[in-house]
Amino acid sequence: MLRADADTRKEWIRARRSKRKQAKQARVRRQGFRYFLLLAFLAAGACAFSMLPWSLRSADSDIVVRGNKVVSAEQVKNALASTIGVPLYRLDPKQLEHQVGTLKAVRFAFVRRYVLPRPKLVVEVLEEYPFASFAQDADSPITHVISQSGRMIPVAEFPSMGKPSLTIYGSANNLRLSAQQVSQWGSWIGYINDLTGQQVASVDMRTPQDVKVRAGDLCLKLGMPDQGLTRRLGRLSSVLASVGTLKGKLEYVDLGLDNNIPLKVAKRVEGQHAETASEAPPARL
Predict the structure, then answer these.
(1) N vs C: which end of the chain shows fewer Cβ within 10 Å?
(2) 117 preceded by cis ω (within 30°)?
(3) In a shared domain, residues 182 and 112
């Protein structure tokens, strides 16, 4: 009796061990099958990734330029011509942004890659907006455009926009304006426009200590464009009545002094080429 019970228990233990072994083998087979499927999917994905057309085929259709008003889309696409035929995953957006940023009319660029519905690049640009035209002097052609950030940009970089009507004269090698200075000059020019009722056409900065402004038929000598210029411009309204009576004779209004405003008058003598200049009584404040 006892022997029979022992044999039965041994048989039960062997059966249980066999079931555990079979269950373990089944788990190993399932795990192996999962790994096989995963590797198969990875291989298929890699094959599809390498064989599908992930590269740009044409700059005209696969490069989209947005936000541009000054720089042309063709300029941006030419800067990215090296991306044609290169798989998208090999393109570095930061490097592409740097390439677009080499265009002087572009201040910042943002490049995004898209695969669907077709491979393409989308380029968002933030541009340098023109503030004034630049020339060496009144007899020289306009060669550059001064942007609102103060950068000197060749006229060729602004093919799709007309040159600003305001012209600044100076030396291309020495004239350096910051964004703050451009903003300040914009305020001064707007102030002169409001006071005189005429649009400022040019600012002569060839002599930094003696800047001249031309607004219609009126010439203003501003002197040094320092912190006191706004106050000196405010005194212009006190001599505008006198300026009106000297129309055609006035050479310039001198706003460079602190105590008075001399009016320089040129007297023309008929039959003579020479001019004799006299100074009208200064307006004292």
Answers:
(1) N
(2) yes
(3) no
